[in-house]
Amino acid sequence: MAYGGGGFDDIERELAEQIERELLSSGLLHRGERSQGRPKLHIDVEEIEYLRDLRFSWTKIAEILGISRSTLYRRLEQEGIDPTCSYSDLSTDNIDTVVRNIKQTHPNDGERMITGHLLRRLGILLPRAKIRASIHRVDPINTAIRRSITIR
């Protein structure tokens, strides 16, 4: 290797070029290819889904797995999972039917308890506002009674 003067960057560049020439001549590297870089990280989709079922945010899941949020989103995309669509797609009538069924067996349950029943038992994920509105439609009397009682 002939050294033509210059700084450390020149030496490093010349060394990299020499290594590339040797790899090309040995057949280990073909023109236009580069080494693969960092090996792929194995991310278990079942683990991601389990954490999501526990209601962790995507940011928190990425933090738990020790990866960036963009890496997590890329992995979800590869698996065909849409991170923006996490709520169940139920009509208002279907939500009311489910809430009505829960209220029949648990008449004194409020928003949080019904949310627990929906999430844990039925696997339905809905925004709190939809659950609250459904409770008001299905059981307006008990809702009014619960609101009138204040804890002192």
Care to describe what's here?
The protein is mainly alpha-helical. Helix content is 61%, strand content 0%. It is built from eight helices and no strands. Helix 5 packs across helix 7. It is rod-shaped and about 85 Å long. The mean pLDDT is 79.
The fraction of residues assigned to DSSP E strands is: under 5%
- The best one-word shape is rod-shaped
Classification by helices and strands: mainly alpha
Biggest sheet, in brief? Answer: none
Number of strands: 0
* Radius of gyration, taken over Cα atoms and rounded to an integer in Å: 29 Å
The residue-averaged pLDDT reads 79
Q: Into which percent range does the helicity of residues fall?
A: 55-70%
How many DSSP helices?
8
Order of helices and strands: HHHHHHHH
Please give a handful of descriptors for the protein shown.
mainly alpha; 152 residues; 8 helices
Short description:
With 152 residues, this protein is mainly alpha-helical. 61% of the residues lie in helices and 0% in strands.
Give the arrangement of secondary structure elements:
Blueprint lengths: L7 H19 L18 H9 L4 H8 L3 H10 L13 H14 L5 H12 L5 H11 L1 H9 L4
